[in-house]
# Entry
Amino acid sequence: RKEVEQDPGPFNVPEGATVAFNCTYSNSASQSFFWYRQDCRKEPKLLMSVYSSGNEDGRFTAQLNRASQYISLLIRDSKLSDSATYLCVVIQRTGGFKTIFGAGTRLFVKA
Amino acid sequence: DVKVTQSSRYLVKRTGEKVFLECVQDMDHENMFWYRQDPGLGLRLIYFSYDVKMKEKGDIPEGYSVSREKKERFSLILESASTNQTSMYLCASNRLVLAGGNEQFFGPGTRLTVL
# Structure
């Protein structure tokens, strides 16, 4: 079983749709959580951190459920420019810190 | 702005060749990482370094070695390239923090093809 699992997609949605990405992690020692965005043929870049209380940045909302070991990302009113791969990232405290990337979920937003 | 640069965007090598991938960051970050990214597998950590001359194995170090002689530079070496090392290689860096984790900044990637 992978330590961080995401639906590979792709998700195909029309502009203006709301789309939700889910991510589960298996190790309860996981401590920090992030969503990264990766455009086609580009490097991953941090989209937002994920906090237990949930956090929102414009059209993007991230939530963490530690009991269920589950992270989500919601994009409202999706734009063509949101088309990308969204990577769930989990950092475990294991002596040092271990960063684990999910395989990513591909999103296509169509006009 | 943090800048992480990699020596090549595209590289084609032959089986058995020695391959050097170079990565340089300009933000005085302590940590540097080498990943490979393959479809369906996501990013997998090959090696990382938290200080000059220090290195730690990641999840898939076999067939690779690294060198960190200067803080800003982290090199990935394929001693004898094989076709299963055809992949996208991404370098990243971040600052050492004592609690939690923090953002990693990535280079643009090197797409290596081994024939």
Summary: The mean pLDDT of chain A is 92. The longest strand of chain A covers residues 84-94.
